[in-house]
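Much of our argument rests on the idea that a fold can be written as discrete symbols. The amino acid sequence and the backbone structure tokens for this protein are reproduced below:

___
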Amino acid sequence: MAENIFIVLPVHNRRQVTEKFVACLRRQSYKPYHLILVDDGSTDGTADSVRASIDALSVIRGSGNWWWAGSLQQGLNAVTAMHPRTRDIVFITNDDIQFEDDFLEKAASVLGSRQRCLLLARVKNPETGAIAETGIEADFRALSFKIAADPERINCLSTRGL
């Protein structure tokens, strides 16, 4: 199993959405995690709400000009500054996902014996439970992106649980 999971969560003025994510996080069976909330200029109290619910938390505040990629970079900079161990995991995610109570435990189990590996959470259709996405086939020359029909065609991963 992994030692610790660093969760990089960029947010901006989505307090209610983020609170649902935090509720899923609080129910996790795997507890050695540290949430890095990258709050890029929220004015709706998102960071204060999360601070009231999560103990293992670092909040990085931006002024609203980092956008998604800049916020991810700030979060990854924070993880680097925390000197993660070889067996630690970095979990990049959106705040609009919900997950089962053993989500982090399963990820830690799968990744525990691997190094320098990416694992993408499968996106399920909330109504049918069917797998809706496992990876993207990107054609960078044509700037087109589609859900990969074949795992061998996956060359791009979303941040909805990476």
User: Anything to note?
Assistant: The first helix runs from residue 15 to 26.
